[in-house]
Design a protein that fits this description.
elongated, alpha+beta, 3 domains, 5-stranded mixed beta sheet, 345 residues
């Protein structure tokens, strides 16, 4: 299934393989738990007949999908062969198959130590695929915004200048040049906004509280909303090694405000930022239409998933719920464990 000279693959293929790998890993873990429970209860539970072939099938599929990780593939093949022998033994009741299964599983146990680094990569493939999908989504949004807004207006300005030049009318050419100058100024602002979205330099220059306050003021001015900012604690944190947390909090605030503007139909937003030594918490509340009758995890789109992933990447928590009769409350908490360790040492 894997070759040394892979052809050009679409972006969906690695994502589909990552999803299949995650499913196989989940089947393997559930089947191992069921097999262990049945073994400890002396075959009093029925799942053992199903769990052994399930483990063999799932690990065999993972071995086929595991490209470039030879040790992990060998380990999976050993496990697959061992549980295949156990599956056969459930039907044949032969001592020889028991010995074969035991040999493969003992070899797998011994080989698990050198193969563990590659196994860890395999286990994290599902999260990596999700992050790739998230990055592709943002790249598509960026390309669409550049094409629909910047490129289209620049092309329209070029056509207007060409039409005015063809008329050989100085007044028409002057008016077209003035219009082009205004368009260029507007698109320069658009490009600055896109650049700030991709890499917000304000976080490094101003600090977290000032950056979030500036972001809220910008959203309020551009969309005619009332955005109140409440900051508790003067300093984002005292550990220089936690700079990535600042950017993650800023991104969550940015995405939450964007969701309110696009989907909530709200008029008033409250953004509360609490910066303490033990962690940073961000709460964004609006008076819009809320999340609807479905649970938030069911209706999550890319924006909500991105906020959740950023929180989980730093060991934090994320929640989104409907606030009473209307509106939404989004809350993200980022613990600063490494700062506590640095201060204690």
């Amino acid at each position: 299934m894997c070759s040394g000279t892979a052809g050009p693959a679409t972006a969906r293929q690695p994502l589909a393989l990552g999803a299949l790998s995650g499913f196989c890993i989940a089947v393997t873990l559930v089947s191992v738990v069921a097999y262990a429970a049945n073994f400890l209860t002396h075959d009093r539970l029925p799942p053992r007949t199903i769990s052994t072939p399930s483990i063999a099938l799932a690990t065999g599929t993972l071995a086929l999908l595991t490209c470039g990780m030879r040790r992990a593939r060998r380990l999976l093949i050993m496990i697959c062969c061992g549980f295949t022998a156990l599956s056969v033994d459930r039907l044949a009741h032969s001592a020889a198959t028991d010995h074969v299964a035991l040999a493969f599983l003992l070899a797998a146990s011994a080989y698990a130590v050198p193969a563990w680094p590659e196994v860890k990569v395999l286990l994290s493939r599902g999260r990596a695929s999700a992050m790739v999908e998230r990055q592709e989504h943002h790249a598509g949004l960026l390309a669409g915004e550049l094409h629909d807004e910047v490129l289209q207006l620049l092309a329209l300005t070029r056509r207007r200048l060409d039409a005015a030049r063809a008329l050989d009318d100085p007044d028409a050419l002057r008016a077209a040049m003035e219009d082009a100058s205004r368009t260029l100024d507007e698109q320069a602002g658009t490009l600055r906004r896109i650049i700030a979205t991709v890499s917000p330099a304000a976080v490094q220059g101003l600090g977290l509280a000032e950056s979030v306050t500036s972001l809220a003021a910008q959203v309020a001015a551009e969309n005619g909303l009332v955005v109140d900012v409440e900051v508790q604690g003067d300093r984002p944190h005292v550990c220089a090694g936690e700079n990535g947390v600042n950017l993650a909090v800023y991104r969550v605030a940015q995405e939450a405000l964007t969701n309110v503007v696009k989907h909530a139909d709200a008029r008033h937003i409250t953004l509360a930022l609490a910066c303490r030594d033990e962690g940073i918490s961000l709460t964004v509340t609006d008076d819009g239409r809320g999340l609807g009758p479905n649970p938030p995890r069911v209706t999550e789109g890319y924006g909500m998933q991105g906020m959740r992933w950023r929180c989980e990447a730093y060991g934090g928590t994320f929640s989104a719920r409907t606030a009473g009769a209307a509106g939404t409350v989004v809350r993200a908490v980022f613990p600063l464990r490494s700062c506590r360790r640095a201060r204690s040492s």
